[in-house]
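Q: Can I see a sequence and its folded structure?
A: Here is a first one.
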Amino acid sequence: MLPVRPPIAPIRSRPRITGDEAWALAGVEYARMLALLRTLDDRDWDCPTDCTAWDVRDMLGHLVGAAEGWANPIELAHQYWVGFGLLRRGAVDGHHPVDGANVVQIRDRAHASPAELIDRYQRAIAGALRWRRRLRWIPLRMDDDGGRFRMRELFEVILTRDTWMHRVDIARATGRELVLTPEHDGRIVEDCVLDWAAKHGQPFTLTLRGPAGGRLAAGDAAESEVDAVEFVRALSGRGSLEATLGTRVVF
């Protein structure tokens, strides 16, 4: 018997991630990243990733630096202040403040062993979640390659989305299993689609395959069918798919 395809859901019937759901998803995503990191060994750290300037060890430094920054406003200010100086001097491959901060995160943690960094990541998670709740009310907007965003969206949604994408990066780089469930990963993917749809405003019918997939539509358009993870990778700028309609979202 052929599997029953789920019905197509109009995007207007699906809510964006916010409130308590945002923090539940964030907690699970940090835990899944931590579990993946603990499976890695000495053979994995030099593996190149889809973030072409970083190997897996660099990505670990970024993840730990980001978590420690969100857990400690003083550390966060340090990362962005020093990173801005690097950006101004042209010492960073990028043009957004976060690009400079990312360099500082990796550079400042280059001396630590992977085992130490994984322990630091675990210790930073609770503080990162706490300060993300507090900082989300900052009344600012920022720009990124994926568009303009509010601080509330950054802290509630985008930081979890970014961690999720780096979990995909590390799993792909090392050949580790990528744990995906409809309840968690499917919701993150769906929210990416809702964000994407709001940005381009064009009609679409989209079937995303896999455990994180689903079927969403707006208006009347021919159906596109792609793997859910590959679609979101394309939304982040990791490769390209015609189905994205040339539109990215922020990660």
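Q: Show me another, different protein.
A: A second, unrelated one:
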Amino acid sequence: MAYSVPDLPYPYDALEPHIDEATMKVHHDKHHQAYVDKANAALEGTDFDGKPIEEVVANLDSLPADKQTAVRNNGGGHLNHSMFWESMKPGGGGEPTGPLADAINATFGSFDDFKAKVSETGVGQFGSGWAWLVHDGSGLAVVGSPNQDNPISSGLTPLLGVDVWEHAYYLKYQQARPVYIEAWFNTVDWDKVSERYSAVA
């Protein structure tokens, strides 16, 4: 079955003032839709047509050579954005609690140090890409990825990602990527991130 863009789990304006309604409409309705359309077209007729996007992105090398780049870019874009919408909620932000909080503190020293690492990674990502909190099989790490690459392709489990493509923030923040990332932390759904952590920890 072909992929489709999931509905946002909240209204377009629900993340104001941190992420504006106009950006959410363009980002979700236009950019994500384009990734889905191109991923569906690239996978049509292959053995991976209709398989879960996580499985496809984890096995890019198994795709026909002439399909790999299109699926990496557009299948990755679909997976990344599907996670991104679910990682935010109205009234989000604050800090995680429980085992995830303990793991963050143990790995990075403190929640503030973790935030600084994510921001540094996102700001330092040249051009377009993402900054991720991942589980690497033994513990937590923060990594960056270019374009629409997903950590799954490298054998990592993504728990939280911040989109640092300009289309994610330029209407409101222009070139001020650090300001956008700081604001984005006010939208994070730590309950969802904790669920993902509990599934792999």
